[in-house]
Design a protein that fits this description.
By secondary structure, the chain is α+β, with helices and mostly antiparallel strands. The protein has 14 helices and 11 strands. Strands 6, 7, 8, 9, 10 and 11 form a 6-stranded antiparallel sheet that branches. A 5-stranded mixed sheet has the order 3-2-1-4-5, sandwiched between helices. The chain starts with a strand and ends in a 20-residue tail after the last helix.
């Protein structure tokens, strides 16, 4: 068995209701546009590197958020190879019996979904390791998700590669491995999630307000709230316990910028996910995500909230103030009609002039012809 640090970049649909989903057997969270990987040597140091661009087949239009984050443009996207060809090259480079090391669990779900929609084989993948769990376990962390930049700062690793580039992120993740006790981390990995679950987040010490979350994640900053809600990797995450795919119900607005949804993992059962949005002083938006193993009371509470009818806000103006009853909703229907003036055509004018009754303007001349006397 050998280890490969892998990172993916993927494009996403412009809308969750896009018609492209009708062509897919599953609800694709993201279509891979770049694969980056670094082999680890026997001493767990970075070794051989691999990078390839992938041309998307379904999400062909570049999402503005992905374009801003990765720097991918239309020309680079069109120059990539098909996913089956890219995966064949990647598999030949990796070899058989490979275990992938990733920073987080999103890459596993995205790769498996892309393999499914192209009906390809994944038996050559021996396993997956989420390095965030090993990092948290060996740095006295909890289940809170830490960014790769946080880990690099913790170990004073200098940033020498481009961020949000598949190969660059894979190389930086490999550098983090050199500062971890990977032999002990791999040996304790299967119990890592359970051990971290018993650790309370620092901001929850001394509190007893119900069950503790099994995952606590903070998002990056976004320009708008809708842009943040459109980040499927953050809003619809994989299972934090087994990294498996989760089927989510609709989001329910709880008020005060709080939302919740109920998900179901085939392995770990029902999960309750809560989002809390915050608007910063610079008008950017961020959110925290809490994931719980849903109890019966949590599931009942969600279903009761989901069954409540939505308030449409009738009887209010665009500014949110009640509209006076005397003021109609559509002013155009009841507004005073504008006076309409009709100007006779040339044939009618000639007849009227011969009859001596042609219309005159305030100067006493014909409105259609210059030089017409009074």
């Amino acid at each position: 068995m050998h280890y490969v640090v892998m990172d993916l970049e993927w494009n996403q649909a412009m809308s969750s209701k896009s018609s492209v989903f009708n062509k897919l057997p599953i609800h694709l969270r993201g279509e891979i546009i770049e694969i980056g990987a670094v082999k680890l040597n026997e001493d767990m140091t970075p070794g051989e590197e691999f990078q390839i661009d992938v041309k998307p087949m379904y999400f062909r239009r570049m999402h503005y958020k992905v374009k801003k984050l990765t720097g991918f443009d239309r020309e680079r996207l069109a120059a990539g190879v098909s996913f089956p060809e890219a995966l064949a090259q990647f598999r030949a480079w990796c070899g058989d019996d490979v275990t992938f090391l990733t920073w987080g669990c999103d890459d596993q779900g995205i790769l498996e979904q892309n393999i499914i929609i192209h009906d390809l084989d994944w038996d050559w993948i021996a396993g997956w390791i989420n390095l965030q769990l090993i990092y948290n376990l060996q740095t006295d962390g909890d289940r809170n998700q830490k960014s790769l930049a946080t880990a690099m700062e913790h170990f004073a690793i200098e940033q020498t590669r481009i961020a949000h580039d598949a190969l660059g992120d894979a190389y930086n993740t490999a550098l983090v491995c050199t500062h971890l006790n990977m032999e002990r981390g791999l040996a304790d990995y299967h119990d890592a999630a359970q051990k971290l679950t018993t650790r309370l987040p620092k901001e929850h010490h001394g509190e007893n307000n119900g069950p503790d979350p099994i995952e606590h994640v903070a998002s990056e900053s976004y320009a708008t709230k809708s842009e943040l809600f459109g980040d499927t990797a953050f809003v619809t995450p994989c299972c934090p316990l087994c990294s498996g795919e989760v089927r989510y119900s609709k989001w329910v607005n709880q008020g005060d910028q709080r939302y919740m949804t109920l998900g179901e993992c085939p392995t770990d059962g029902k999960l309750l996910v809560r989002l809390k949005f915050r608007k910063a002083d610079d008008c950017t938006w961020s959110a925290t995500r809490l994931t719980y193993q849903a109890t019966d009371s949590m599931e009942s509470y969600y279903k009761a909230k989901a069954a409540q009818p939505r308030k449409r806000g009738r009887g209010k103006s665009a500014a949110g103030r009640p509209r006076p009853r005397s003021q109609p909703r559509n002013n155009r229907k009841n507004a005073n009609p504008r006076p309409r003036y009709s100007v006779p055509g040339p044939r009618v004018l000639s007849v009227l002039m011969r009859a001596g009754s042609a219309p005159r303007n305030r100067h006493g001349s014909c409105p259609r012809r210059r030089g017409c006397g009074p």
